[in-house]
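It would be a great kindness if you could assist me with a short task in structural biology. The matter concerns a single protein, recorded as an amino acid sequence and a row of backbone structure tokens. Could you please explain, in whatever detail you think fit, how the structure tokens follow from the sequence? Thank you for your consideration; the sequence and its tokens are set out here:
___
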Amino acid sequence: MRSPSSTGPAGLAERPVVPGTVRPATTPFTPRPVRRAVVFDLDGVLVDSFAVMYEAFAVAYKEVVGDGPAPFDEYRRHLGRFFPDIMRIMDLPLEMEEPFVRESYRLASQVPVFDGVVELLTTLRVRGLRLAVATGKSGERARSLLGQLGLLPFFDHVIGSDEIARPKPAPDIVEHALHLMGFAPEQAVMVGDAPTDIASAHGAGVTSAGALWALSETDELLDARPDIVLARPADLLALCPSVPGD
């Protein structure tokens, strides 16, 4: 974890540059690896799925558990994890998964893409970066949603929590994305809006970027100590210049 001494106007952590300073001869200059890949979480980063998620969760709770308020606020605190894992943590029936998934598919057309995301993905692609999604959703459901929203062609890989051995907060899903794209951890950045995303990035040795644009409360994400904080999607571009030709 870096400890920056100043913060740039877009919320990006920066080290101060003192004009005219010379590095000591005993400290060899190590160039920063070129970032060649970005791994994104899906919900709360690329798409604003919370209203649909709330409705699907409420229907599933009523069908399986019965009347009464569905504990969606608690559910949302665990986002980034695989749905069955959240049910176990919350001590709710695993049978809720079937109606939750059914309603999520039914309502998928109502999920909006966050402002600035299409422009961000387009620019990253033009700059030569490879892109992947690593989500708490199942892979099939994530690819279906991204396809319906027209975002799927931007991504080389979309990986769901059912497609790796250990879902977030373990590093497996980020490591798998890097393996599929053929990059080392220092060549990538992971963008997420939940502590599970940041933990997964840290475990994989990848720079972690906390996305704030969907959050009304940021304390839990900031407590996870992301390396960089992004106030809006376009802020990521400062970290991802064009990839030089090999």
